[in-house]
Amino acid sequence: QVQLVESGGGLVQAGGSLRLSCAASGRTGSYYHMGWFRQAPGKEREFVAAIDWSGGGTDYADSVKGRFTISRDNSKNTGYLQMNSLTPEDTAVYYCAAGPVGGPHVISTKYTDWGQGTQVTVSS
């Protein structure tokens, strides 16, 4: 099992940027893929971005492609989500997730461990 803690959320104006971090602990010696999901009020949780163990494979939701960048630093057991050109539609709780096999994965059932989430609010 991998424990995940997100940080870096906050309030930003439209057009601004934020960088989310996801610190992993526990069985970090094993290979695990990582992903970011988000959930806006009254909506279902949705996929945002994913990355495989090596960092060489990534995938993005169409809504964030070209604006968000997922990355990871395995020496620090930390994943990142750089978010640029933010819009009010990006407002949501952002969750980091990890899973043991393959990746990058876009469906939530491929992930076994989840963080508690961090709020991102984009004002117009």
Q: What's this entry about, in short?
A:
By secondary structure, the protein is an all-beta fold.
Structural class comes to mainly beta
> Any idea what the radius of gyration is?
13 Å
- Tally of DSSP β-strands: 11
Major sheet: 7 strands, mixed
Tally of contiguous helical segments: 0
Strand content: over 45%
Distance between the termini: 39 Å
How much helicity do the residues have? Answer: under 10%
Specify the overall morphology: globular
What is the subunit organization of this protein? single chain
SSE series: EEEEEEEEEEE
**Whole-number average pLDDT?**
95
Low-confidence stretches: none
Which terms would index this structure?
single chain, 124 residues, mainly beta, seven-stranded mixed β-sheet, four-stranded antiparallel β-sheet
What does this structure look like?
It is a single chain. A hairpin with a 4-residue loop joins strand 7 and strand 8 (78-83). Strands 2, 4, 5, 6, 9, 10 and 11 form a seven-stranded mixed sheet that branches. The protein is mainly β and 124 residues long. The protein is built from no helices and eleven strands.
